[in-house]
Design a protein that fits this description.
Two copies of one chain form a homodimer. Chain A is mainly alpha-helical. The first copy, chain A, has six helices and three strands; from the N terminus they run ααβααββαα. In chain A, a hairpin with a 2-residue loop joins strand 2 and strand 3. Chain A binds a DNA duplex (30 and 30 nucleotides) through residues 39, 41, 58-60, 68-76, 78, 91, 94-98. Chains A, B: Residues 1-146 form the HTH marR-type domain.
Chain lengths: 169, 169
DNA sequence: GGCAAATACTTGTTCCTACAACTATGCCTG
DNA sequence: CAGGCATAGTTGTAGGAACAAGTATTTGCC
């Protein structure tokens, strides 16, 4: 371990980055709960399913895309199934696996929630950034992800030219 | 509500920013738990106290600096007091308030944990960024904080010229 | 083809956090 | 110098996530 301290500018930047990481997710979570009775996490479960072929994913694939542990996802999906947002079926290919399907109702809930969520993302993130800063932020995030997620599990296929599928966000 | 969709680049950047916000805090939390038996939150409780005059803060001031609710902080501080990391005393100025003091032991734990934590921050955040990107990131975070924390409660005094106090992180 | 190991999930427990209700102290107003 | 209101914390309860253990299915190997 090298124990080099951060210089003053780095320390300053870190304090602000840390503040953003604490405030932004909870701000978005609040808006989703209020407007759509969805948690931030549940929203992205629906979003990931909506982007998948046939709107179906196996539990483990869904867990990877949402950065969830399997136990956590299992509990959440059970409750979402009780609400009718998703449906679970056994995988005919592999009896150990469970397929999670996005229902019509779940898709409708996502479509209803998406504009408000996207609007919140714009307000909090993009409104005050010019085009150059947006592309700078992309490069910076990429650099960090080299260390944090070298496999690109979470960025999925978003490191290639953008997937225009809607709704995403 | 305006319901403008994000353009492709914005969507791409958002996916990556979101990934950073999910992975980075938990990566830092893991390292602190492993190396120092401190949560990310507890570490910053100690850090905020260490930077305060006399290494003392009132509960409400500490809650503001750590972005915690008072109930949450109350529980955590009670446990940290049981471990001997902090000490609580009534405020002679105001009988409603409680002063939280950093103990020598708490300071020692912070000093022992800081190098590893700072090292992790460097590895995950700064190592792959050049000086220009660091300053870009500072400006970008500032822009977001205009909306997220207009009062600057969390950035405290870090928007002014850097406070060289060590250890911070 | 049968046994061991690996995979894919589920269930149960524990810890942590948020929200709500409560207590105690200080302030302010008539 | 009351009575009412605001402030500062604590405690209790309920929901969410992490970790550990258990179940079922498939795969690999002799």
């Amino acid at each position: 371990m090298v124990t080099t301290w951060l210089d003053d500018e780095q320390l300053n930047v870190w304090v602000r980055l840390k503040a953003v990481m604490e405030l932004l997710p909870s701000a978005l979570d609040s808006e989703l709960r209020r407007a759509a009775e969805l948690t931030y996490f549940e929203y992205y479960v629906l979003a990931m399913l909506s982007e998948a072929d046939g709107r179906v994913l196996r539990m483990s694939a869904l867990a990877a895309r949402t950065n969830a542990t399997l136990p956590r996802l299992s509990h959440v999906v059970r409750k979402m199934a009780e609400r009718g947002l998703v449906r679970r079926t056994p995988d005919p290919q592999d009896g150990r696996s469970v397929l999670v399907h996005l229902t019509e109702e779940g898709y409708a809930v996502l479509v209803a929630a998406a504009p408000g969520h996207v609007d919140a993302v714009r307000r909090y993130v993009f409104d005050r950034l010019d085009d150059e800063q947006v592309s700078q932020l992309g490069a910076i995030a990429d650099a960090m992800l080299d260390r944090l997620d070298p496999e690109g599990v979470l960025t999925h296929e978003y490191r290639r030219p953008a997937d225009p599928g809607r709704p995403a966000g």
